[in-house]
C-alpha cells in the first residue's frame, strides 16, 4: 500500500455510529447460534469428525484510527461445545474490522492454547461473501504460535469463507493447514457451521453518547 507523507493526522470526518458504517460486516453484528457445526481434526489414529454447536457474540466498537487509516469493527467471542461434553470444545476472541477507504476486511483471532492470527481480504460494502487468509511467516497478515504448537502442530495457513444468506443467517468454512509432527503430508483441519441470529447488537459506546446528548 502507498504510505502518505502525513502518517500522524487522524481523519476528522469519523462517523460515531459503527453499526451504520460496517460495510459487509453489518450482517455479522448481533448474537448468533449454530447447531450444525462439523469439525475435522487430526488424531493419532487418523482424522476425527466432531459435531458441535456454538454461540458467537459480535458487538460494535468505537471507530479506530491508525493515523489516517480508519477502521469500523466488531469485537467477537466464539464459544463452542459438543453434544456429548459439557466442557468447552473451543473458545476464541478477536475483532472483525472494515476499512471503508480500501475495502480491506480483517479478522484478528486469539485462542487460549497459545495462538494468534490476523487474516485479511477485500470486499465491497454490499458483498455477499467474505474470503480472508493468513499465512505463517508473514509479518503483516500472519500466524504466531507457542513453541509446542509450532513444533507439534505447525499452522502453515488459515482461511475463512463467510457466506451471507437471504434469510439473514450466515455460514462459514474455515480451513487450517497443519503440519503434524511425525506425519509426512499436511493435514487440512476444517470447521463449518450455519448461524442464526438470536439477539441484536448494542450500539457502540460513542453512538450511545451522541444519542444521549
TrEMBL record:
Organism name: Sphingopyxis macrogoltabida (Sphingomonas macrogoltabidus)
Taxonomy, superkingdom: Bacteria
Signal peptide feature range: none
Pfam families: THAP4_heme-bd
Protein name: THAP4-like heme-binding domain-containing protein
Lineage of the organism: Bacteria, Pseudomonadati, Pseudomonadota, Alphaproteobacteria, Sphingomonadales
Ranges for domain THAP4-like heme-binding: 21-197
Gene3D superfamilies in the record: 2.40.128.20
Amino acid at each position: 500500500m502507498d504510505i502518505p507523507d502525513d502518517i500522524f493526522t487522524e481523519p476528522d470526518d469519523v462517523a460515531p455510529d459503527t453499526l451504520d458504517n460496517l460495510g459487509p460486516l453489518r450482517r455479522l453484528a448481533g448474537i448468533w447460534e449454530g447447531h450444525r457445526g462439523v469439525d475435522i481434526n487430526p488424531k493419532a489414529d487418523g482424522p476425527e469428525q466432531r459435531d458441535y454447536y456454538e454461540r458467537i457474540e459480535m458487538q460494535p466498537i468505537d471507530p479506530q484510527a491508525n493515523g489516517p487509516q480508519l477502521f469500523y469493527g466488531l469485537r467477537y467471542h466464539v464459544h463452542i461445545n459438543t453434544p456429548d461434553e459439557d466442557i468447552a470444545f473451543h473458545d476464541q476472541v478477536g475483532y472483525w474490522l472494515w476499512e471503508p477507504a480500501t475495502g480491506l476486511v480483517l479478522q484478528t483471532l486469539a485462542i487460549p492454547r497459545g495462538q494468534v492470527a490476523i487474516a485479511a481480504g477485500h470486499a465491497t460494502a454490499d458483498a455477499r461473501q467474505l474470503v480472508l487468509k493468513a499465512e505463517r511467516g508473514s509479518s503483516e497478515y500472519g500466524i504466531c504460535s507457542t513453541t509446542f504448537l509450532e513444533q507439534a502442530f505447525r499452522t502453515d495457513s488459515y482461511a475463512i469463507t463467510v457466506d451471507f444468506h437471504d434469510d439473514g443467517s450466515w455460514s462459514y468454512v474455515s480451513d487450517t493447514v497443519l503440519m503434524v509432527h511425525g506425519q509426512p503430508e499436511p493435514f487440512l483441519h476444517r470447521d463449518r457451521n450455519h448461524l442464526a441470529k438470536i439477539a441484536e447488537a448494542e450500539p457502540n459506546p460513542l453512538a450511545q453518547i451522541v444519542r444521549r446528548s
